[in-house]
Write a structure and sequence with these properties.
The relative contact order is 0.08. Helix 6 packs parallel to helix 7 and helix 8 packs parallel to helix 9. The protein starts with 7 loop residues before the first helix and ends with a helix. The chain is built from 20 helices and 18 strands. The protein has 699 residues and is α/β, with parallel strands linked by helices. The strands form two sheets. Strands 1-2-5-6-7-8-9-10-11-12-13-14-15-16-17-18 form a 16-stranded mixed beta sheet. It comes from Calocera viscosa (strain TUFC12733).
């Protein structure tokens, strides 16, 4: 087959795999034929992630110039007109923070007891937000932009949505999702508030312009102010109207929606429920405006919904909500997740036991999970509350009985499971492929259920977390000094940890971020016996192989969580072989984020006002806002008219009832027949004539 016969989609996939496997091949591909060069450019510039910092835009000779790492991002910033046509996704993220400190010569972090020494730096400590004009120029140079993502703590320009509509008609996804702070509020109180709201909230004045994008399929919005939430409700109503207008585009309609706003009121719920093509819905709210009626409206109106996620939903959901709720018949995946760190309202999880009464006839995936606090991996103190604190309470028997039928993926570590509870589910769900639960027993007890597990012909993954009381030996000593690797971008800064009196949880006090050593390479099956001998909580190789033989499709046996040991990967070619992978340290993204928040706390940085932040409302938006006012006024009038009609109807019923009472005659008691005895007495003893005459005079 000649290269010209290969479709562009296939060629792009091949070139992307080659660049991922061998990054150094980029030079050769870019210097090849024009078709290979274009394919390589599409792979290299597919996603461009740029820090929200104007110092990168300065000339190299400027004192404040901050260079970017050589690569596609630097090339795009230097020449957006040339490389913009190859960009599909543009992401704006938090800026890099540099400090005016010097650290020990052998490290980019300093040891306990050492202090930084202030020195003059050629780079200003405070980043300068990208100007609105710069962003507008970039969007103009990317005519085929598919996805725009804003994750910076600084607010985007007020007119960003109008710019997207002007320059990127084919945009399919828009996301405004600033990162949620990880460190406790006492650490970064200078940057964010103590609530989950994190960065300052956006009013989103130009958000309504997104309704003009006929190709828009995905929308992810968070951290909106009350004004912004109203704009979101208005936008969703406009999108529903566009969806109904088939003359605009036959495929118009939102298919994936993510909303995490504080003011999640019934108006927003009503707008969401009217989408006819919505397939994936993710809801989150730290406020209390989400009630039973609003959530029920969404469930009843989403006829095409396949995936529903309730993530960190506080609201005011009643204890018995799920007893009367009905899930859409099209729903395949249902997820409820909450973090252990909170903060949560005391009633946030009260509705979970009523899930036992929820009908789950067509669900293939059910997840009721507890997100573990990632800071514990770094030995950083974090506040916990009673609602989400690990380990949880025992799972209600009614909930266990409700898991049955077509479920293939069951993840339920919110409650603690007994072995008998798990056995019941294994018998009721013969199609299970993935099991992920919190087991209230030693990890090795799972092998006592081999007979029940073997009946699941499609079982691929068994993932368990175990409370510390069932794992006597910790995988990593809690008082071990574990060093943080140096960072090429941002130094690690120690910070004062919360005192035991101010924190609900008492943990070891550390003065630096503590990270585990680099993960050890996977170990073949032979060393597992020695590992088990060192840690009695681990299963033996013999038991794992026995389980693998009984469960023919089993691929992974995992012990995760705070006391997790790792995972056993099962390879069946040519014979059964077990490879043990110890629990790795914190993810690089987590480490980088904590470094960034530490640097922000020390530098005292706050997002500044952006050049060109303010925006003059367009004529189109003014007209839409006027229409919205008219719509609200008409809705209020219709409500008043409906109330008046109900009053008039009740009054008419009352008048008709009164008329029926007046018109109905008084019932006449029929005369009883005269018996022969009465006739005989009457003839023997006749009444006087004057009595007879008086009776005849009575009317």
């Amino acid at each position: 087959m000649h290269l010209d016969d290969v479709p562009d989609v296939v060629l792009d996939a091949i070139v992307a795999d080659a660049l991922t496997s061998v990054p150094s091949s980029a030079t050769a591909l870019l210097s090849s034929s024009s078709r290979l060069r274009c394919s390589a450019l599409r792979a290299l510039f597919n996603t461009i992630t740029i820090p929200d910092d104007a110092r990168h835009m300065l000339r190299p000779g400027d004192d404040a110039y901050l260079p970017l790492r050589p690569g596609p991002v630097a090339a795009f910033v230097a020449e957006p007109e040339i490389y913009g046509p190859f960009v599909k996704t543009l992401k704006i993220v938090d800026p890099v923070i540099f400090l005016k400190e010097i650290f020990p010569a052998n490290s980019l972090f300093f040891l306990a007891g050492e202090a930084p020494t202030a020195v003059e730096s050629s780079h200003p400590c405070t980043p300068v937000p990208l100007s609105a004009q710069t962003l507008d120029n970039w969007l103009r140079c990317i005519p085929k932009l598919d996805e725009f993502v804003w994750r910076s703590a600084g607010l985007p320009p007020d007119g960003i949505c109008e710019a997207l509509v002007s320059h990127n008609k084919e945009l399919r996804s828009f996301a405004y999702m600033p990162s949620i702070p990880l460190l406790p509020a006492t650490v970064e109180k200078s940057v964010t508030s103590a609530t989950r709201s994190g960065p300052v909230k956006w009013d989103a004045p130009s958000l309504l312009h997104l309704s003009q994008l006929v190709h828009l399929r995905g929308l992810a919005i968070s951290r909106l102010s009350q004004t912004g939430s109203r704009s979101l409700s208005h936008l969703l109503r406009l999108l529903v109207s566009s969806e109904a207008d088939v003359t605009l585009h036959e495929d118009t309609g939102i298919e994936e929606l993510t909303t995490d706003v504080l003011w999640f009121d019934e108006e927003l719920c009503d707008a969401i429920a009217k989408f006819s093509k919505l397939k994936t819905l993710t809801i989150g709210t730290a406020g209390t405006t989400l009630r039973d009626r609003g959530l029920q409206t969404i469930l009843e109106g989403s006829g095409s919904l396949k995936h529903l996620v309730l993530r960190e939903v506080e609201g005011r959901i009643s204890r018995s909500f799920w007893s009367s709720a009905l899930l859409p018949s099209s729903l395949k995946s249902f997820t409820i997740s909450m973090t252990e760190s909170g903060p949560h309202h005391s009633w946030a999880a009260d509705h979970l036991p009523s899930l036992a009464n929820l009908s789950l006839p067509n669900l293939q995936s059910v997840r009721i999970t507890r997100s573990l606090c990632p800071l514990f991996e770094l030995h950083i103190d974090a506040p916990l509350d009673e609602v989400g604190q690990w380990p949880g309470s025992p799972i209600p028997p009614e909930v266990v009985e409700s898991f049955k039928g077509t479920i293939r993926v069951l993840e339920c570590d919110w409650w603690l499971w007994k072995l008998e509870d798990l056995r019941t589910v294994l018998e009721h769900c013969p199609r299970l492929e993935v099991i992920k639960i919190a087991l209230d027993a030693p990890f090795t007890k799972i092998f006592s259920l081999i007979l029940s597990l073997s009946s699941l012909r499609n079982l691929r993954v068994i993932s368990l977390c175990v409370p510390a009381e069932h794992a006597p030996q910790s995988p990593i000593p809690k008082d071990a000094s574990i060093w943080c690797p140096p960072s090429p971008v941002t130094p690690v800064i120690p910070y004062p940890l919360p005192t035991p009196s101010s924190s609900p949880v008492k943990r070891g006090a550390y003065t630096t971020i503590l990270l585990p050593e680099p993960p050890t390479p996977p170990m073949e099956s032979s060393p597992i016996a020695s590992i088990s001998a060192l840690d009695p909580a681990l299963p033996s190789l013999r038991d794992i192989k026995k389980l693998a033989k009984k469960c023919e499709k089993l691929e992974i046996l995992e012990w995760y969580g705070h006391n997790g040991r790792g995972a056993w990967n099962i390879d069946r070619e040519p014979a059964i072989k077990v490879v043990f992978q110890e629990s790795t340290g914190p993810a690089d993204e987590l480490v980088d984020r904590v470094r960034w928040e530490q640097a922000v706390a020390v530098a005292g940085w706050k997002p500044e006002h952006r050049d060109g932040q303010t925006w003059i409302e367009s004529t189109w938006l003014t007209e839409e806002l006027d229409k919205e006012k008219v719509r609200k006024l008409e809705k209020e009038r219709e409500i008043e008219r409906e109330k008046q009609r109900e009053l008039e109807k009740a009054e008419r019923k009352r008048e008709q009832a009164q008329k029926r009472e007046v018109a109905s005659p008084t019932p006449v008691t029929p005369a009883s027949p005269t018996s022969p005895v009465d006739e005989q007495l009457r003839s023997q003893f006749p009444l006087p004539s004057w009595i007879k005459n008086s009776r005849t005079l009575v009317p």
